[in-house]
Structures are given as structure tokens and as C-alpha cells.
Amino acid sequence: MLKHLNAKQGDGVVFRLQDDSTVNIEKKKKKIELPQGVDLDFIKMVNEVMDEYDKAIKELTKR
Fold first, then answer.
1. How many CB atoms are located within 10 Å of the residue 27 CB?
2. Would you say the C-alpha torsion 43, 45, 46, 47 has a positive or negative sign?
3. How far, in Å, CA of 18 to CA of 38, rounded?
4. Secondary structure (3-state) at 51
5. What is the pLDDT of residues 13-62, one digit of tens each?
6. Are 10 and 30 in contact (CB under 8 A)?
7. Would you state the pLDDT for residue 30?
């Protein structure tokens, strides 16, 4: 289910029970305020690189 929502660590998941007994599931991203001088585009780029190379970096730490 988390994979389907594309939920990542730090994201919240909200389950809402409806009157007709169905459940709505919604991903809520955690709102983070960046320190002054930290560029959001830079943080996004770092996150993309970490997502792409996470496995390789973890393997390197085992050497």
C-alpha cells in the first residue's frame, strides 16, 4: 500500500472512514521549514541523487 501511495520515510498516511464504510487513504507530506540560506532546489537535487544511488552508497559502507 505504501508503495502504491509512493510514500517515503517522513510522509504521513491518513485513513478516513467514510459514512458508507469505505476508507479513503491519503498521503500527507511532512512540511519542513528550511533554514535561511538553504535552497529548496538544492535539497530536491540531493534527494534525487540519494534516491538514485542509495543502494550503491549502502554497499560502499560495507567495504
1. 14
2. positive
3. 41
4. helix
5. 888 999 999 998 888 766 778 889 988 899 889 989 988 998 898 888 88
6. yes
7. 67
Domain spans of the chain, in order of start: 2-60
Predicted model pTM: 0.42
Contacts of 12 (CB under 8 A, 6+ apart): 27, 28, 29, 30
- Cα–Cα distance for residue pair 57/9, rounded to 1 Å: 18
- Predicted local confidence at residue 5, as pLDDT: 77
- Report CA-CA distances (Å) from 8 to 3, 21, 36: 8, 27, 25
pLDDT in tens, 47-60: 899 889 988 988 88
Residue 9: what are its φ and ψ, rounded to 5°?
A: -55, 130
The Cα 25–Cα 12 span in angstroms is: 10
